[in-house]
Amino acid sequence: MKNDINITFEIIKIILTAALAGFFTYWITFKKEREDKRYHANKELLEKVYAPIMKTISESIFPGDGYEGIRESDLNVIIKLIDDNSHIVDPRLDSFAWRYKEDMVHDHRINNDLRYEATYDEDRVFIDYLNYRYNLLRKKTFLNYDSSYFFFGKTKIKIWSFISQVKRRVRRIIRKLTKTKKY
User: Fold this and answer.
1) DSSP states along 57-108
2) Terminal CA-to-CA distance of the chain, rounded, Å?
3) Is the predicted pLDDT of residue 27 greater than 80, yes or no?
4) What is the structure's pLDDT at 26?
5) Could you tell me which of 36, 55, 63, 73 has the fewest CB atoms within 10 Å of its CB?
6) Exposed, middle or buried by CB within 10 Å (0-12, 13-18, 19+), for 101?
7) What's the pLDDT tens digit per position in 76-123?
8) Could you give the CA distance from residue 104 to residue 9 in angstroms, rounded to a whole number?
9) What is the pLDDT of residue 183?
10) With 60 as the cut, is the pLDDT of residue 181 above it?
11) In the chain, domain spans
C-alpha cells in the first residue's frame, strides 16, 4: 500500500516536472522569437527609413550655419522615403509627412514664385524626433549611439533645442541686417 502511494507520488512529480519544463521551454522560445522579430523590424526601419533620412538632412546642412530647417527639395525626398516604406514607419513619422505635405500645398498656393524654395521645420520638432528615434533604433540594434539622448531624456533635448533656436534666430537677424544695409 505504501509502495503504491510512493509510486503514484513519483509519477505525479515526473508529470509536473515534464509539464513545467515544457512550459518554460515554450515561453523562452516564444520570447526569443519575439525579440528576434523586433530586432529585425528595428534594423529594417533603421536601414530603410531613418538612415537615409538622416543622410539627406546631414548632406543639406551647411558648415558654420548648422541646421536651419529642411529645404523643400530635401523634404520631397524624405516624404518619398516615408511613403515608400509606409508599411514599417511609425505613426508619428507618417503624421509629420502628412503635415509637411499640407504645408507645401499651402505654401505653393501663396507663393507662386518658382525661384522660392521654402524651408520647413524651423522649430526643430522633426529633427529632434528623428535624432531621438535614430539613436533609439541604433541602441536597440546594438550599434553605436549617442547616449545623451537617453541620459537626461527629453529635458536635455528641449534645452539644447531652445539654445540652438536662439542662436539660429540671432544669426538670421544678423544676416538680414547685413543684407539690408546699402553701402
Assistant:
1) HHHHPBTTTB---EEHHHHHHHHHHHHHTTTTS-HHHHHHHHHHHHHHHHHH
2) 115
3) yes
4) 93
5) 63
6) middle
7) 999 999 999 999 999 999 999 999 988 888 777 666 655 566 788 888
8) 76
9) 45
10) no
11) 2-180
- Predicted confidence band of residue 24 (pLDDT cuts 50, 70, 90): very high
Residues 7-35: b if buried by 16+ CB within 10 A, e if exposed: eeeeeeeeeeeeeeeeeeeeeeeeeeeee
- 126 vs 54: CA distance, rounded Å: 11
Q: What's the CA gap between 33 and 40, in Å, rounded? A: 11
The residue to which cell 546594438 is assigned = 142
Q: Give the residues across from 119 on adjacent strands.
A: 71
Whole-number pLDDT of residue 178:
76
Torsion of CA 82, 84, 86, 88, to 10 degrees: -90
